[in-house]
Amino acid sequence: MSDPGPSPSPEQSAEAGTLAARLALKQRAGGIVVPVVTVLFAFLMSGIIIAATQHSVRTALVVFKEIFQGAGLNWVFHPTTSLLDISAYNLSQTLLQTTPLILTGLAVAFAFRCGMFNIGGNGQYLVGLIVANWLGVDLAGLNPFLHILLCISAGTLAASAYAGIAGILKATVGAHEVISTIMLNWIAYWTASWLIGAGGPLQVSNNPTNPVSNQVSSGARLPDFWGVQGFQGLHVGLFVALAAVVVFWALLNRTTLGYEVRAVGFNPDAAAYGGISVKKNYFRAMAISGAFAGLAGTLDMLGGAQNYQIGQLDIPFIQVGFIGIAVALLGRNTAIGTLLGAVLFGALSYGSFHGLGSSAVIDPTLANNLTYIIQGLIVLFIGADVLILYVWNSRKKLRRPPGKTARRAEAAAS
Amino acid sequence: MNTWAARLDNPISARLRDPAASGFLGIVLGAFAAFLAIPPIEARTVTWPILVGIVAAMLGIWTVTRGRRRLGWGAVAAGILGIGLGILATRSSTENLGSTFDATLVAQTLSFATPLVFAAIGGMFSERSGVVNIGLEGMMLMGAFWGVYGADKGGSWVVGLLVAMGVGALLALVYAFFAIHLRADQIVGGTGVNFLAVGITGYFFIDLYHNNPIANGVSLLPNVHLLSGSNFLAQAIGDLNILTWASFALVILAYIVVFKTPIGLRIRACGEHPRAADTVGINVYAIRYGCVVLSGMLAAIGGIYLSEGPQGNGTFLFNMTNGRGFIALAAMIFGNWRPAGAFGAAILFGFSSALALKLQVYSASAATLFQALPYVLTLIAVAGVIGRTVAPVADGKPYVRQ
User: Which of A7, A339, B66, B256 is the most buried (most CB within 10 A)?
Assistant: First the structure.
């Protein structure tokens, strides 16, 4: 295995200025190359699986085309706001799926920046979902603006406190946050099942055997800005999520809190030596991380779902916390990267669900599983820094010989 | 000779004189206090649970005064809880008690615990060698699907078991390559493995079986008929599955391997201080590869029990593990990375599942909430309220050979 670290050589530094500038350049270039290579590789592998199981390379290509169109990405070629156009409708649905993924991605990324792994996005999302449903149903008749604001802030705060448990445990007794957040995930899951299960406090009032929650009152629903109101149009939650991206960036890069969080993430010992309280920052980072995930839950409840049912929301929604890990890793834990990663995964999950759902090429039910395979491969490969840096380094090696020959040719000509 | 002489001088061994012993005895007695009131003993008077509970609490207080405070308070809590539960049980009707706490509860507890034991012991091997295995869930799922596939195509549950082990080992090998050679973050890699397993099993389940949940007439994992009749013992352990018995053997074997053999010492050395292990000539990479692959095999056996065992009856369902891999992980942590501890935790978690199933008849909502108990207990355990759990020092840290 070759040495992954940067190996400065005299010729190169002459070309690219100072050492620091070259390092930054390399990191930036590697930062873009790594996710792109990973995604391409994951698509390639899944393409091989389709081609092998369906005995046709053409099928694999058609499948990817249909995912692309199913996600509404061909809208770019003929943009329109008319929802009668199928690509515009598909795009609105893709963005609807992207909204929670942006936020769960930010949640994971924020904890990562503090050197922690928040694997509990699902649990925090559920807490946000349940609290928003509870207040959205119980406070019917309130001023809509106030009602929405109350639901969102209460859900976000509750999820923040829930994630804070893991932060406190890490700060005080050193319990590993991965273990505690996994446990909190399942505690939230079963508690939610109890709350909306038969005879549970939040269970629908007119049908006591149906394990589903009440619908949030119409006043608490987020208005749709694209699509038919009430028919799964694209709600304003997307803008909240985009605002959260800006908040994430500003919080990390422009505040003392962000500086401390990043310092602890880089090196807790050095941060402590510099007078930063590591324990306090573990708790703060985890609580903020939970707030992002909880916000995703409240937006999904007030915008798209409006009521909650364990079996129904499990597959598209409950996984969001885990997909958030893939999103954050792909985005290299930066604000803009997370946004792009969320768009990719939103397009992938809606595109394969819808694009292949009506297709005659392969069994439509295969499509969702294909999404899981692609997600799994991306997560697996994005974590393998050594592999990626190896690819990056060998790419450079491949590029160097022609450069040298060109220079020699120049020398010969002059 | 010296040690024997010392033992003759002092018949109560040092281990028993340790205050920890009285603390543990207190906790056991506390549990016993509650146990007295339920069948098969079923004391119908509150006297016995209260008496035993008080003894447990006193043992706890004695332990506290001798320095082991956490353990002591744990025993006091167990005693009080035992009295409370005992009184509660004597108040409720004999009929309800009889149908809840009968021999089938024992059988069901063991049945629920079996897959957890396999996966937890697998996870313990992996983590003892220094590789965190969040991917247990995915490896179980692979075992569950490919086990049915193997049994269906091969015509025998033996083939299914072998196929499951092979596929589990293969997925674990991929994970091990990423975790050990490519030095990927182990939590990230495990999460990837879980996604991948859901996708692969789901994809091939539809591709090969067209989403038809039952593979008809598939050869199932057999039960071992030891006793027949209607007495307590026959109903409890007379007709257990072959893998349940194998899980008991596995716990003993795992204990011997990890703590009594040179190979176990090497495994633990890799998990505690890989640099030192490397220095004395242990091949850290080889040990870690072996342990991760072993964990994949064991988790896959746990998985095949779900689909091919008495609960599954040859049925595979999409994502059918439904978090059991994570419960197994919790059991391993709750059991403090030890075979017997992991077994005890798996039995406890299996008991809570079995009890939840029984309680379903009386109160479905309470039964649902009961499912959260294993996770709450593990959270309390990692928080260090009752005795702190300690992971291997180098657990989760990639090792770079120099």
Answer: A339
A404: buried, middle or exposed (CB in 10 Å: 19+, 13-18, 0-12)? exposed
Pick the CATH number of B103-383 from 1.20.1070, 1.10.3470, 3.40.50, 1.10.1200: 1.10.3470
User: Which residue(s) pair with A64 in the sheet?
Assistant: none
Dig out the tokens for A283 from the structure: 């708790």
The arithmetic mean of pLDDT across residues B34-39, rounded, is 70
Domain boundaries in chain B?
A: 2-100, 103-383
B54 Cβ contact partners less than 8 Å away, ≥ 6 residues apart = B79, B83
Give the per-residue SS3 of B274-316.
Answer: HHHHHHCCCCHHHHHHHHHHHHHHHHHHHHHHHHHCCCCCCEC
Best mutation target among A117, A127, A182, A374 (most B Cβ atoms within 10 Å) is: A182
* Position B221, amino acid: L
Provide the pLDDT for residue B387.
Answer: 52
**Chain A partners within 8 Å of B181 (Cβ):** 1, 386
* Three-state secondary structure call for residue A309: strand
Q: Which of A177, A310, A372, A392 best tests the B interface by mutation, with the highest count of B CBs <10 A?
A: A372
- The SS3 call for residue B210 is coil
Over pLDDT 70: what percentage of chain A?
Answer: 77
Q: What number is the ipTM of this complex?
A: 0.80
- Return the minimum-mean-pLDDT range out of A156-165, A376-385, B98-107: B98-107
Query: What pLDDT does residue A407 have?
Result: 52
Residue of A53, A189, A384 lying closest to B184 (CB–CB): A384
CA distance A157 to chain B (A): 21
Closest-CA residue in chain B for A193? B368
Instruction: Specify the DSSP class assigned to residue B101.
Output: S
Kindly report, residue by residue over A225-273, the tens digit of the pLDDT.
Answer: 877 655 677 888 899 999 999 999 999 999 999 999 988 888 888 889 9
Looking at residue B385, the DSSP 8-state letter turns out to be S
Question: Quick check: B172 and B139 in contact, CB under 8 A?
Answer: yes
Which domains can be identified in chain A, with CATH numbers? 60-380 (1.10.3470)
Q: Chains A, B: CB contacts under 8 A, how many?
A: 166
Q: What is the pLDDT of residues B347-396, one digit of tens each?
A: 988 988 888 887 777 767 777 777 888 888 888 877 765 555 677 888 87
Paired sense of beta strands B223-225 and B239-241, if any: antiparallel
